[in-house]
Amino acid sequence: MEESQNKPKNLIAAIEGILFASGGPQKIAKIAKVIEKNIIETKNLLMELKKEYQNENRGLDLIFLRDKVQLVSSPSVSFYIKKFLEKDFSEELSFPLLETLAILAYKGSMSRHQIEEIRGVNSVYALRSLCLRGLVEREPHPDIPRAYLYKISFEFLKHLGISSLKELPDYEKFSSQ
């Protein structure tokens, strides 16, 4: 099948999909390159998408900062999102969250890609949830622009009632593997 047959006819839908899949701020120039339009045309498409969100009173919106754009939840639904997240945070940690915590606790600071290689699945939700709970911290990757390293936080240690990761069961055995 030819690549052009896979292209959506609606570039706004393509942009929306790109922003949804990325989960973070994206350079407008990068989006323009992907959809094969210039920056001005891409900005116009982004503004059209923003108007659609506002005119249809949707739960999503776009925010712009300098040369980047990000898909976010609309302020009009913030009450429900807070309610949803509070419920999520009051519940016990799920297996995927515990698995991600264990990897970071025993292996140390890692990129999302490294965590996903170990887990074998997408870890965006798990990392975002753990960061929001304060159990994991995110910091800029020193070698890769626009990438992050994730590490265990002090809150994690406090939550477990330990003063060092070395107090974890079999820490020496598993951290060296």
Question: Which helices and strands occur, and which strands form pairs?
Answer:
Blueprint: H1 11-22, E1 26-27, H2 28-35, H3 39-55, E2 60-65, E3 68-73, H4 78-90, H5 95-107, E4 110-111, H6 112-119, H7 124-133, E5 136-140, E6 148-152, H8 154-160, H9 171-175
Helix pairs in contact: 1-3, 2-3, 5-7
What is the number of helices? 9
The domain count comes to: 2
The helix-strand sequence is HEHHEEHHEHHEEHH
Distance between the termini: 44 Å
Q: What CATH architecture of the largest domain do you see?
A: Orthogonal Bundle
Strand order in the sheet with the most strands: 1-3-2
Task: Write the CATH fold name of the largest domain.
Answer: Arc Repressor Mutant, subunit A
Mean pLDDT: 86
Largest sheet: 3 strands, antiparallel
Structural class: alpha+beta
**CATH superfamily grouping of the largest domain:** Winged helix-like DNA-binding domain superfamily/Winged helix DNA-binding domain
Secondary structure tally: strands:
6
Structure description:
It is a single chain. The protein has 177 residues and is of the alpha+beta class. The chain is elongated. The protein has two domains: 3-76, Arc Repressor Mutant, subunit A, CATH 1.10.10.10; 92-175, Winged helix-like DNA-binding domain superfamily/Winged helix DNA-binding domain (Arc Repressor Mutant, subunit A, Orthogonal Bundle). The chain contains nine helices and six strands; from the N terminus they run H-E-H-H-E-E-H-H-E-H-H-E-E-H-H. The chain has a three-stranded antiparallel beta sheet. It has helices at residues 11-22, 28-35, 39-55, 78-90, 95-107, 112-119, 124-133, 154-160, 171-175, and strands at residues 26-27, 60-65, 68-73, 110-111, 136-140, 148-152.
